[in-house]
């Protein structure tokens, strides 16, 4: 019987997948191997399953007899298009031989469509205090998406040194909403020790989870790259070492990679790095049921079911428990304003279009 190994898909381009195998010993935490190159079995296409970065998988060695055959491999749609184009222009492309095959994709905790990422545990929502001005609607859309996918949101108020007053206001808004908030200046280093300590704590080998993955998201210019580099100095070295074997077709692929990074606690943080996280799954957020939107604002939770009217939309009704809590200072007006705007956006999507998703 072939030896199967547990691992994480770290990247995927053109039907080739990088997988880091993990030896999970209770006394030693995760022992992560070097990346191995894999194909995926064709059965995934038949079952309408797309192997995705972040997937927990079982891999096994490829039989020598099967090593040169690709007819049973999973081939993504963009690869099929490229193959057709290549055949027309310059003949059949040379296949890349691999030593391992993805045999099983384990149950997912969540799956993002844009950027395509699975099993994300934490979303670090980066909001600049200034330069550019904070965009609270975008920030609140990120929190809504994360809540719907069961992803824990941590708010980072960056560039706090540029406008301390704005930083204090943003910190209060999101702490009142129930989020962990870190006001920092990644450029100067202010507050970064506390943020690094938090990441070390949640990734500690004795924290009780197999592995922790996360992503940094926010508007362009908010300082995500500076933050990630300050927290993980060796990240640039890791991102520079991509094998050329999987680079073909990259221009047509939404490129996502996950990097296992050691933390101060001796644990591992699997960082998802892609420009696409600036617009995290906005392609689908409009299709969340608008009448369930209030449940995605965690500071609304205790109010749900307490309004005078059963079908209260929490926008302007008399006797609304959400509005009453806001009047008492328990909900920031900006958060309620975002709720109303997102509610109206969602409600404007026709029902027939929702059923197509």
Strand percent estimate: 15-25%
Which regions contain 5 or more consecutive residues with pLDDT less than 50?
66-71, 89-94, 239-253
What is the share of helical residues?
25-40%
What is the rounded Rg?
Answer: 23 Å
Secondary-structure element order, as H and E?
A: EEEHEHEEEEHEHEHEHHEEHHHH
Give the distance, in angstroms, between the N- and C-terminal Cα atoms: 41 Å
What is the SS-derived class? alpha/beta
Instruction: Average the pLDDT over all residues and give the rounded result.
Output: 83
Largest sheet: 6 strands, mixed
Major sheet strand order: 10-9-8-11-13-12
Task: Report what the structure shows.
This protein is of the alpha/beta class. The protein has 11 helices and 13 strands. It has helices spanning 43-46, 77-90, 136-149, 164-176, 192-202, 224-231, 235-239, 282-285, 321-327, 333-347, 351-355; strands at 5-13, 16-25, 29-40, 56-61, 100-105, 111-112, 117-118, 122-128, 152-158, 180-183, 212-218, 257-262, 268-273. The strands form 3 sheets. The chain has a 6-stranded mixed sheet, with helices on both faces. Strand 12 (257-262) and strand 13 (268-273) form a beta hairpin. It is globular, with a radius of gyration of 23 Å.
Q: Which tags fit this structure?
A:
alpha/beta; five-stranded mixed beta barrel; six-stranded mixed sheet; 13 strands; single chain; 357 residues
């Amino acid at each position: 019987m072939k030896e199967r190994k547990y691992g994480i898909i770290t990247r995927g381009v053109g039907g080739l997948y990088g997988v880091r195998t993990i030896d999970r010993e209770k006394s030693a935490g995760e022992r992560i191997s070097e990346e191995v190159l894999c194909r995926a079995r064709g059965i995934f296409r038949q079952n309408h399953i797309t192997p995705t970065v972040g997937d927990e998988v079982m891999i096994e060695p490829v039989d020598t007899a099967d090593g040169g055959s690709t007819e049973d491999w999973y081939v993504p749609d963009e690869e099929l298009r490229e193959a057709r184009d290549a055949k027309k222009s310059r003949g059949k492309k040379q296949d890349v031989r691999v030593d391992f095959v993805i045999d099983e994709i384990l149950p997912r905790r969540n799956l993002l469509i844009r950027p395509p990422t699975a099993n994300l545990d934490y979303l670090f929502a980066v909001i600049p205090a200034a330069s550019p001005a904070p965009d609270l609607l975008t920030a609140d859309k990120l929190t809504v998406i994360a809540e719907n996918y069961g992803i824990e949101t941590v708010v980072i108020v960056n560039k706090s040194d540029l406008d301390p007053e704005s930083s204090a206001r943003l910190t209060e808004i999101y702490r009142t909403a129930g989020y962990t908030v870190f006001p920092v200046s990644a450029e100067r280093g202010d507050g970064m020790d506390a943020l690094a300590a938090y990441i070390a704590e949640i990734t500690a080998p004795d924290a009780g989870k197999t592995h922790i993955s996360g992503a940094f998201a926010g508007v362009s210019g908010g300082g995500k790259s500076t933050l990630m580099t300050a927290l993980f100095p060796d990240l640039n070295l890791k991102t520079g070492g991509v094998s050329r074997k999987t680079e073909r077709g990259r221009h047509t692929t939404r490129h996502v990679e996950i990097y296992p990074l050691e933390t101060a606690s001796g644990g591992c943080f699997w960082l998802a790095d892609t420009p696409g996280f600036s617009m995290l799954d906005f392609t689908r957020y409009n299709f969340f049921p608008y009448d369930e939107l209030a449940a995605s604002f965690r500071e609304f939770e205790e109010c749900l079911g307490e309004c005078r009217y059963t079908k209260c939309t929490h926008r302007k009704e008399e006797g609304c428990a959400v509005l009453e809590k806001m009047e008492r200072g328990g909900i920031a007006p900006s958060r309620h304003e975002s709720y109303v705007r997102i509610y109206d956006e969602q409600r404007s999507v026709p029902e027939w279009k929702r059923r197509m998703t």
